[in-house]
Amino acid sequence: MKKIIGYIPLDDRPCNYVWPQKILKNTEFSLIVPPREIMGRFNIPADREKVCNWLREHVKSMDALVVSLDLLAHGGLVASRRLVEAIPEIRDRIKILEELKKLNPSLVIYGFSILMRISITVDSPESEKNWKNLYEYSKVYYRIHQLKQIELTDRLKQLQSDIPSHILTHYLKTRERNFTLNKEFLDLLENKYIDFIAYAQEDAAEYGFHREEQAELRKLVRKRELLDRVELVTGADEIGTLLLARYINIATGYTPRIFLDYTYDKGKFFIAPYEDCCLNISVEEHIRLLKGIQGAEAENSDIVLLCHNSEEKALDLFTSYPDEFKDNGGKIFLKMFRKYLKMGKAISIADVFYTNGGDPALVSLLVGKKYLKYIASYAGLNTTSNTIGLALAQVSMVMATGPGEHQILELLIERILEDCYYQTIVRRKINKKIVSDGFSPVKLSEKGRIYEEEIKKMLTAYLQTMIEKEKLSLKSFSAFMPWDRTFEVEIDMELE
């Protein structure tokens, strides 16, 4: 008999709403989610009343519920960065969790909440400058007030004068409100309205406002003796899928034993853009959240996670771009890959060589050698933590639920198309065209339809190469921009 998992994702973006459904399709777990039309869209918050009604309607059939507390509280990730509602209103809405436990006392509930990023949402050309200044302001403020680097005082004053006062005030008040709520969410654990909480630190840096919040939250968790029911990790978009994998691992009695290896061993000690910890710590956090074990030897592990990392700090492809994509690292990776392939291990690839895109030099080597069918999961999107978490979540669920090889290959090709070819190559080309046409890549509205055909055409060329190399047949393929911006593309494909 199938176990039914209810899922309230962070928002309706493909990484949050679509991918988990695709991973669990045709498995012994049935994932049910609210209709997409009530989940909101970019700047439009989810219809929380309808989401709550959906929960009431389906809760008695659920064995478990993985729920974004930000969606229940604010309407989604972007909505959580706006000071629209006061704390009392949000408290009333969160009471739905108490109601759900009463309706289904045996229901297992995992909640997750985001610790606010150290800047604002970029949703217009004007907001890009404010994003950069506020990001820097947060770091400098922390260095002055916590590290006593008073020589930065003039720099802080300059940044403060560059940021419109209403934007800075709104940001700081929103941050204060959200952290108050995050502390109060611990009451849900103590009152047993939820069983586990993951706090995820969205876009951050080594220094920033978030450091004080993390320290205070950890102190509260220890004081209230909740260490076994709370995890703090870096990331955001991967957390819901990881918690689904955590529940499935516990429900099936599967404990992933994961061996790690890196393209460049010394590179694991660097902090990637938008992260606040070095690579190896982020990997350890995500394995722990998954309820996995880090294996000391590959021979005694069932999964090998290969982190394709740079020898230095990862280059952010959203703000910089290399003159060429050299394959030096890819060739080193390939030797490592072949070694574990001979061992017969499930291989997961976290492509973190760059931030905000995969390494096309590596992918070209893997495609050219016809290795795709030997890869259990691949990710290379957005931040390093997003990549690590989604690669791990997928391989864990593949191992625990056993989807068919055809399904695994479809998932893999979709991820390569979006995370590597789209984010790294196609997005840059299409952004240049959009800007030259006088539009903004972050706010296209109905103009997005103009460019979707071109995006699909470029991606089809890469898809065709993979199809031919692996001797596959394509049944259908589509690509579109779900939020009318070029940051992400939603890909759907089906093999014959």
Explain this structure.
- The chain has helices at 14-24, 48-58, 69-74, 87-94, 96-103, 125-145, 153-162, 165-190, 210-223, 239-252, 279-289, 328-342, 360-368, 384-401, 405-436, 448-469; strands at 3-8, 29-32, 64-68, 108-115, 196-201, 230-234, 257-262, 293-294, 303-308, 315-316, 346-351, 354-355, 375-379, 474-480, 490-495.
- The strands form 4 sheets. The chain has a 6-stranded parallel sheet with strand order 2-1-3-4-5-6, sandwiched between helices.
- By secondary structure, it is of the alpha/beta class.
Give the strand content: 15-25%
Radius of gyration, in angstroms, nearest whole number: 22 Å
Averaged pLDDT: 96
Number of helices: 16
Distance between the termini: 29 Å
Biggest β-sheet description: 6 strands, parallel
Structural class: alpha/beta
Indicate the percent of residues in helices. 40-55%
* Strands, count: 15
| Overall spatial form | globular
Strand sequence of the main sheet, in spatial order? Answer: 2-1-3-4-5-6
Low-confidence stretches: none
